[in-house]
Amino acid sequence: MSTTTAAEHTTRNTTLARTVTDVLQPRNALLAGMPGIGLAAAGDWTGLLWGFLGALCAGLIPAGYIEWERGRGTWGDRHVVDRTKRAPIFFVILGSLGAGSVVMVLGNAPGGILVAMLALWVMTIGLLAVNTVWKISVDSAVASAVVALLAVVHSPWWLAAYALTAAVCWSRVALGHHTVAQTVAGAALGAATTVAYAFGG
Questions:
Q1: Using N-to-C axis directions, what is the helix angle for 46-55 and 87-106, rounded to 10°?
Q2: Residue 84: is its pLDDT beyond 90?
Q3: Whole-structure pTM value
Q4: CA dist., res. 156 & res. 41, Å (int)
């Protein structure tokens, strides 16, 4: 009976972890957070449009690339758990962020959203560099970066949303895709985007 109960508990934990990791995956975190950053940068509704452009370049285009590669059989999971296969994704993200930044410069986007793009670009360079030797958690990094940037541009009260970042870290460990150290390192790198943001500002 106790064995069955333990097995059921493990199954429930795995199901919950899978739900958390899918709902709070980088694409969704950026889609939710970047418009808020854009709104704060512009001070009016036009910032939402710039924020959506940021979300498109930072999250949706890379996610679309991953799904395309999955369709070709290159990867079996949208989170690309095999560290050795991640490099192309990072280059797509860097190119997409770069292209989006050019559009923002040409369109006279608010400085704040452009600097946020720069911060994410710097973070991606860091992820790429670390990923060559160690499987740092990208999901944790993005979740942390979104919260940290919202806290900087809006209010420190956004730091309470780090509970969601903690949930992402837990889910990645619970699913066996990362160690605690790898998720903490990812979250720390994501938080460091605020340094790049402050430097860029």
A1: 160
A2: no
A3: 0.91
A4: 16
